[in-house]
């Protein structure tokens, strides 16, 4: 099978917030079709479409009630077939979101399952008796707060849900469940879908003895190591590969919660026949204080050294085994410039700086809608957030457990709340940023008049064109796709610099990730080479790396040294 996904750049669409073609305030598939030429012009070759299947939308479509039909606000199955076709016509590919750790509680399987203990669908989910005192079967927590178990009066048992109680977990131990999943995958792949992003795939295998977590604090419910990497995880993925994936020339990327590099090798080593690549959370967790009852909301300041260390660990570990994803943003991870950088007076430089760090690395880059124009986190009072993760966490941490003050929670949500990634795409400076002719389901970011696609396309120095160049450089230079990675200046608190090497070519990437100037000194072994500037966000045409370089705030550059014999 060809490995086209190694040379690809992916553009992620969160359809409800992308473009609304019919004025109901909710993005749709026809809206995506209308914007395909825009994505193509950026240079991306693959689209990852977040879930568009039928769903009560408790978790914005990550709660699916029918895997074979499209949610009506997004359109129809025919719209989806048309989208696949239009994507292919433009020489691009499309992957969908496979959400099969859980379904919606409104899925027909769960409706059956909850009816009686002897229903044929009972074992599609996990049902357990209460403990003797009536409480939950164990102390596992839901990632969206509270217990991972909900009691169902009808049969007097609890069912398991790692996310909201409207997202019951599927029982992958049951072969019939696995068969259903493979069938629905085949259904879409036979209709042209080019692969899958697999939602919380790291959780599909459960520790079926359901051991309690040991706790040293007063937390009633814990989310921890039992929630991922269960004993049959890789066996299940290998089976899925055998039964479905191996029959298609497809791309697969697993959302691998709880994975470290050793786990990543298991997923992505091609000789194991599992997945092409995974999303790790390790580099996104560098601003979280570990082992706090407040989970991801317990923030610590951004530290470039921690980012370098973590990303380098992944670059190095997977260098000759497996493959990395490269991402800073998605629909769960808000705008990186607002979270770790400067989204005010240095917004443009900063967006280009983070883009350079990422797009110079080895792996498949993922661009999240709006990242390419430097969209920022929004301004919202707490009451305006829509996301159930935020609402539940507020209730649990601030109101019930009182482990966080309202002010600390507000600050954390301003940085990390998922809704910041979900505000409508800013197309122009008109009403609702040109996203909809109606009332948007979530308020548009008030900065839309300054930050929008129209403005970005009109400015030749824009973030959009910088991304376009980064993508173009990846297409033209194999060293960016395949080169070996080596970190430079590991202890420098401001500069993220590294080299890539491939068949005699060398790439040097240096980025000042701070608001202060920084001095860059190339290590002596690089001084013998002759370097040409590939890209610079401060319009430098020449760079003499033999001296020290006085880097401006958020300055980034990429220089290349061609193979010595390439001129002959
Ligand atoms: C990960 C998805 O990215 C997120 O948006 C969702 O809430 C959970 N999985 C549950 O499906």
From TrEMBL:
Gene3D superfamilies: Glycosidases (3.20.20.80), Golgi alpha-mannosidase II (2.60.40.1180), Oligo-1,6-glucosidase, Domain 2 (3.90.400.10)
Top EC class for this record: hydrolase
Enzyme Commission number(s) from the entry: 3.2.1.10
Domain of life: Bacteria
Record bears the keyword rRNA-binding: no
Reactions mediated catalytically: Hydrolysis of (1->6)-alpha-D-glucosidic linkages in some oligosaccharides produced from starch and glycogen by alpha-amylase, and in isomaltose
InterPro entries according to UniProt: GH, GH13_cat_dom, Glyco_hydro_b, Malt_amylase-like_C, O16G_dom_2
Keyword set, alphabetical order: Glycosidase, Hydrolase
Family from the record: Belongs to the glycosyl hydrolase 13 family.
Protein name: oligo-1,6-glucosidase
Organism: Bacillus haynesii
């Amino acid at each position: 099978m060809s490995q086209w996904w190694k040379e690809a750049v992916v553009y992620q669409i969160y359809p409800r917030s992308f473009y609304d073609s019919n004025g109901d305030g909710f993005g749709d598939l026809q809206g995506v079709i209308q914007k395909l030429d825009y994505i193509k012009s950026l240079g991306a070759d693959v689209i990852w479409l977040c879930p568009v299947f039928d769903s009560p939308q408790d978790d914005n479509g990550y709660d699916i009630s029918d895997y074979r039909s499209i949610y009506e606000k997004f359109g129809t199955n025919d719209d989806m077939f048309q989208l696949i076709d239009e994507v292919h016509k433009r020489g691009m590919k499309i992957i969908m979101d496979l959400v099969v750790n859980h379904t919606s509680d409104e899925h027909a399987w769960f409706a059956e399952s909850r009816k009686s203990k002897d229903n044929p669908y009972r074992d599609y989910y996990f049902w357990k008796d209460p403990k003797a005192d009536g409480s939950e079967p164990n102390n596992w927590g839901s990632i969206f707060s509270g217990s991972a178990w909900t009691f169902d009066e009808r049969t007097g048992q609890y069912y398991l849900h790692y996310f909201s109680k409207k997202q019951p977990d599927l029982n992958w131990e049951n072969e019939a469940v696995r068969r259903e999943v493979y069938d629905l995958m085949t259904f879409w792949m036979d209709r042209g879908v080019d692969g899958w992003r697999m939602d919380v795939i790291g959780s599909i295998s459960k520790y079926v003895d359901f051991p309690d977590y040991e706790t040293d604090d007063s937390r009633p419910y814990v989310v921890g190591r039992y929630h991922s990497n269960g004993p049959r995880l890789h066996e299940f993925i290998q089976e899925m590969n055998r039964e479905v994936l191996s029959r298609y020339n497809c791309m697969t990327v697993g959302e691998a919660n709880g994975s470290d590099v050793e786990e990543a090798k298991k997923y992505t080593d091609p000789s194991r026949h599992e997945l092409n690549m995974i999303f790790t959370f390790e580099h996104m967790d560098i601003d979280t204080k570990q082992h706090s009852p407040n989970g991801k909301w317990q923030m610590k300041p951004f530290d470039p050294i921690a980012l370098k260390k973590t990303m380098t660990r992944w670059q190095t570990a997977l260098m000759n085994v497996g493959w990395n994803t490269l991402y800073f943003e998605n629909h769960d991870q808000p705008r990186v410039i607002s979270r770790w950088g400067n989204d005010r007076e240095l917004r443009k430089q900063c967006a280009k700086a983070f883009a350079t760090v990422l797009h110079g690395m080895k792996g498949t880059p993922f661009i999240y809608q709006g990242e390419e124009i430097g969209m920022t986190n929004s301004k919202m009072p707490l009451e305006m957030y829509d996301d159930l993760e935020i609402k539940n966490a507020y209730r649990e941490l601030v109101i019930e457990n009182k482990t966080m003050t309202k002010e600390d929670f507000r600050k954390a949500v301003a940085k990390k709340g998922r809704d910041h990634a979900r505000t409508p795409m800013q197309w122009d400076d008109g009403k609702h940023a040109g996203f909809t002719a109606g009332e948007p389901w979530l308020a548009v970011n008030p900065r839309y008049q300054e930050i929008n696609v129209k403005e970005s396309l009109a400015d030749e120095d824009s973030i959009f064109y910088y991304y376009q160049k980064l993508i173009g450089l990846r297409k033209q230079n194999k060293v960016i796709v395949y080169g070996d990675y080596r970190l430079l200046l590991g202890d420098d608190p401001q500069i993220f610099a590294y080299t890539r090497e491939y068949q005699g070519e060398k790439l040097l990437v240096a980025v000042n990730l701070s608001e202060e100037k920084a001095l860059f000194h190339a290590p002596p072994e690089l001084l013998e080479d002759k370097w040409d500037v590939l890209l610079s966000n401060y319009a430098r045409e020449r760079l003499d790396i033999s001296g020290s370089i006085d880097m401006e705030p958020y300055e980034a550059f990429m220089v290349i040294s061609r193979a010595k014999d390439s001129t002959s």
